[in-house]
Amino acid sequence: MYNFLAAFAVFLALHMVPALPTLRQRLITLLGRRTYFTVYSLLSIVALIWVFQAALALDFIPLWEPAPWQAWTTFVLAPLGLFLVLAGLFSENPLSISIYQSNDRKGAIVSVTRHPVLCGFLLWALGHVVANGDLRSLVLFGGFALFALGGFLMVEKRARRLADNWSIAQQGTSIWPFGAILKGQARLRLDPVMILSAFATAAITFWLLAGGHYVMFGADPLLQALPFD
Fold first, then answer.
1. What separation in angstroms does the CA of 186 have from each of 89, 95, 144?
2. Is 60 in contact with 99 (CB distance < 8 Å)?
3. Model confidence, pTM
């Protein structure tokens, strides 16, 4: 458990950097934007691998009996979450987490939710909490879900503080997915980033279901969704 807690602490510390604009800008100035994102991405991947390895080393303690419907919940939430993360990272978004920052331009995904990366990460984590019925999965994916919820509060507070005019900056967006669209404050639209993200999500999902998930994590989600008698 100590190894898992250490790994998760490092993961949290790394992902605090984007939420601290002063520190983030200092690192970009020191390293250059391309080097910063390259190093940050590599460190994030290493930390994530460490978290999963530490979690898999924990004892398996069952909490509930997995059922096929739980796997199908993951099949819906995880790809949707992955799509939101990809579209959010590569769209311009001055109000939340994004690789491309701008002062006023917003990608089409922002009309769905102004925090697509955090929303996607939350959906992905919750989808895996439902499908796995053991303590280590609850600690791992539940921790990711709590991390995403905490990120909503931090990033939203930062956006409100930095925006010149919040009432104008947040027009056409909502924290809740499709909230602005349902209220008639925005319309659903597509842009190249969303289209490419959809294709990438489909390709990654197909690879995972075709055996990639088993190779990486030793579990085949299709076996739970389609049990053989």
1. 21, 16, 30
2. no
3. 0.85
